[in-house]
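Tutorial sheet, problem 5. The two components below are modelled jointly, 804 residues in total.
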Amino acid sequence: MSPALRCHRCGERYEDATRVRCGCGEPLWFETDAAAFTWADRRSHEGMWRYEPLLPIDGPDGLAWAAGGTPLVRSEGLDDAAGCRVCVKDEGEHPTGAYKDRGSAAAVPHATAAGDGAVGTVSYGNMAMSTAAHAASLGRECVVLVPDDISPVRLELIDQYGPTIVRVDGDYGALYGDALELSAALPVRFLVSDDPARISGYKTALFEICEAFAPDAPDALALPTSSGGFASGLWRGIRDLEAAGLLDDPPRLYLVQTAASDPITRAFDAGAVDPTPLSPEETGETIAHSIGNPDPPSGGRALAAVRDTGGAVVSVTDDEIRAAQRRFAVDGGFCVEPASAASLAGVARLSERGEVDDDDAVVLLPTGTGFKELGAGDASVATERTSRAALPERLASLLGVS
Amino acid sequence: MSPALRCHRCGERYEDATRVRCGCGEPLWFETDAAAFTWADRRSHEGMWRYEPLLPIDGPDGLAWAAGGTPLVRSEGLDDAAGCRVCVKDEGEHPTGAYKDRGSAAAVPHATAAGDGAVGTVSYGNMAMSTAAHAASLGRECVVLVPDDISPVRLELIDQYGPTIVRVDGDYGALYGDALELSAALPVRFLVSDDPARISGYKTALFEICEAFAPDAPDALALPTSSGGFASGLWRGIRDLEAAGLLDDPPRLYLVQTAASDPITRAFDAGAVDPTPLSPEETGETIAHSIGNPDPPSGGRALAAVRDTGGAVVSVTDDEIRAAQRRFAVDGGFCVEPASAASLAGVARLSERGEVDDDDAVVLLPTGTGFKELGAGDASVATERTSRAALPERLASLLGVS
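Model answer (structure tokens):
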């Protein structure tokens, strides 16, 4: 039985475990009964499920068991570039190569336990792959909504797991809301970027870091941010450990965005509570394709996380990202995707600004492996295609509903 | 201080920790003082270094800390394809995307502790990447010997870590022996595929599997085999645990080769002690580019491992490999490289032959991630080029030796 859902902003509480957003407009997350938790309560399992007492589902299934338990290592070679004492939490070392697997590991079993319908998501990248892989491991149908102009390379990465891929012509950003509506109307559960169960899964990255440092704590964490889901999960994790009395001095959260599309940075700099969605004219191309959501559904919560922990949000350019990506490899031995390299680029900026000191212990969280970007692939991929307007009907047809 | 080196075949013992091969011709491995080891002696570290008491070096450095601790999961979706009860040990979830990191994690620090010279290897694939990454994390120069006709894609994968890449025109297979000679003559340590320290690192995969199953044990392990190094490491691990009284019923070792180049399979079928090197006419192209060494330097030891554990060696075709790769993804949610998929294809064959039963618990070891094969990359890479004959002089020049 799922715990209740709670709003971080207005405090409203919901018993319906299928809700995603509060009536006030903010995203919801699962309550945790963390007060009595101690490190000794962790299960003996190696991955993220060692923290099962703090997660909203029991005993997952399939690929979920492989998520989490990523390496956390001191990476002195990167100290120079970062201007501090660097540790790396290599989230790319996951079954589908990204931290998204922590979210899918909780959300896909959570959805499949609740009903027999399909699962799905709205993504052309890591979240699409992750959701499809977890669904595949459970023999459950998966529907992925992608932009009509998705590249063949992206299609190949997603298609390997066998989901139904639906190309949607129209405003791709609006599909977040569409997906929630479709989940209510049809036998499918779209697991959006800040689905509460995903957020619960993301907490486990924070637990692993803090357990490794205990009884100390890192001074800061640095991660790339797009929709605000991972930052929300790390903050939820911090609050759980504070409730348990296991984290007296939480790490500062530093979020890094791509200068090409950085609504959260702008809101932080302006002292705003919520990001203002960026218009197409206000966004540009970036090599950090995994980040840059112009209208981040958990943007307000990510800002709250930053302010609560005394952190900051910064933007970095593609040049800084490329340089950081090379430093990750040449000085650290890590192959990380461009968005992930932004973490290092961001910390370098913060060091220049004097917000990060030489002797600060900072954990960089490269969110995805760079291997997906290297090598060559020219496979043809079969897809479904539809317009946004016809999506409900097409989906109903695909799902065998009249 | 390193333990002594021992020959698996003639029993000869050497104190010189830089030797690689026995006077009898067989590869050496480090002795282990395992008799008193219990699972309680494992360190609290998360990765392979939890087994430090059984490894030939103390406290590694750099990227080495990130190796090991890969997920081991029950993967029921693959039972059908395999014809048994499948567990997957996902060795692709490593810093450089392959099990090679276990070997480099031991061998690179071992070499750097012994002297100030460069490290290197002979490889155009996963071992090249791994060695380069580990060296990069220690700020140590790395030299990689590659075939003159190496593809741009392979170059990109290796070059990202910043090693010196040397294209060698001539008999690439002969570079194994050349590398050992060069290591003796120049300030460089080439860490070949069955370097004893690499073999020690590979043991840890077996330790992790057996500790997870303890007090039971899997019925069998299945892995792709090329040079015979990984199989040697798993066998060394089995023997350590037997000596410690922790493994009464060791798993059978099933090695899988590509039908295009399968000297070990042929030797197994013929009841031969050693593989006969294959001529170019006897080998063909394969999608499983990570395997297919026509003259495996640890082939004899791999055969001994198979016979000692009651296992077998089988070959699979490219069609079987492709089908298995798709099953890994669509039924298991795993993206594995073609050579890795051979593990599943091999077990399917063995099930058909009746050597593997429905209720056998078999651990598949996909050795490398499939992400390196997907996506696109068109970078240009700067390289050094030389003939084999001129290699010693060129290398001396590159290393600043007169």
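Marking note: Chain B is about 35% helix and 15% strand. Full credit if you identified this.
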